[in-house]
Design goal:
With about 300 residues, the protein is of the alpha/beta class. It contains nine helices and ten strands. It has an eight-stranded parallel β-sheet with strand order 2-1-5-10-9-6-7-8, with helices on both faces. Strands 3-4 form a two-stranded antiparallel ribbon. It binds zinc ion. The site of zinc ion has 7 residues, from loops.
Length: about 300
């Protein structure tokens, strides 16, 4: 056993247009780099399936799912939100991205893998029940959460989101569901502007100012997120693994380094080991400096071993 690495070539076919930060080059950089590292031969490599409509509709309104499925153009580009578009092949990329999360759950629950990382795009944590937003079409992590609850009967699921942006879509999906614990660190004030005022027993948001460096980020985890997550005692853990809090990321103003992502991953794994039989499915969210993204994913995978 070991860590499953789930991706699909379709995820590179989602064309967001010239100059868009959420480009296929992100995945290409990761998939060029990882085979040169020691971790690669230890990964259990799998292809992401297409998520089913039924699996999507556990999270999203059916009318929204139908609208996205019908929106893909034969040529050109349609915008679902100012930052989020579909071009030919975008739908399959989105279906593979959510399908990866369900495959990760299946691999971990069947015992074929200890943990899984979904190296996919488009990302998901801004996608709400009935809207696309911020590069996200379907909420990949939320689809995985509902899959592990509905298909395997697990009760309590935790999500840790260390992307530099607040996962407003994920919070939207689980706001009134205390069976799902959601914790997020994010730059504030910043896009999408949500999260700082949330008051909930099962949602822990930690807004941090622009300029945040590793020590303050780690303190937020040690003081706020890890004790609450430990108290919740999840049966299964998901990670919204965005690496755009990296110092070199062009979209945000945090100063994390690879070692901070390794530390954070190791602490999340400690909680999974204590309560969830070590079971983690981590799903890629942001990360827009491609070399920083590739190196950060490498240490994330090492820490998940
Ligand atoms: Zn982000």
């Amino acid at each position: 056993m070991g860590v499953a690495f789930i991706t699909h070539p379709d995820c590179e076919l989602h064309d967001t247009g010239f100059g868009h930060p959420e480009s296929a080059e992100r995945l290409r950089a990761v998939l060029d780099y990882l085979p040169t590292t020691k971790i690669w031969d230890r990964l259990l490599r799998h292809q992401a399936p297409l998520v089913t409509k039924r699996q999507l509709c556990r999270v999203h309104d059916e009318a929204y799912v139908d609208a996205v499925m019908a929106a893909e153009p034969n040529q050109g580009r349609v915008y679902l939100d100012p930052d989020t578009s579909m071009a030919p092949h975008s739908l399959n990329a989105a279906l593979r991205a959510s399908g990866a999360a369900t495959r990760g759950v299946d691999l971990v629950m069947s015992g074929e893998a200890d943990r899984a990382f979904c190296c996919i795009r488009p990302p998901g944590h801004h996608a709400g029940i009935r809207r696309a937003m911020g590069f996200c079409l379907f909420n990949n992590v939320a689809v995985g959460v509902r899959h592990v609850q509905d298909a395997y009967g697990l009760q309590k699921v935790g999500i840790v989101d260390f992307d530099v942006h607040h996962g407003n879509g994920t919070e939207d999906v689980f706001r009134s569901d205390p069976s799902v614990f959601y914790a997020s660190t994010f730059q504030h004030p910043f896009y999408p502007g949500t999260g700082a005022d949330t008051r909930s027993d099962h949602i822990v948001n930690v807004p941090l100012p622009a300029g945040t460096k590793g020590p303050d980020f780690r303190s937020a985890f040690e003081d706020r997120i890890l004790p609450a997550l430990d108290g919740f005692a999840p049966d299964f853990l998901f990670v919204s693994a965005g690496f755009d809090a990296h110092r070199d990321d062009p979209l945000a103003q945090f100063f994390l380094l690879e070692d901070d992502f390794a530390w954070t991953t190791a602490r999340i794994k400690d909680v999974a080991d204590s309560h969830a039989g070590g079971r983690i499915v981590s799903v890629l969210e942001g990360g827009y400096n491609t070399s920083a993204l590739a190196r950060s994913i490498e240490v994330h995978l090492q820490a998940m071993q």
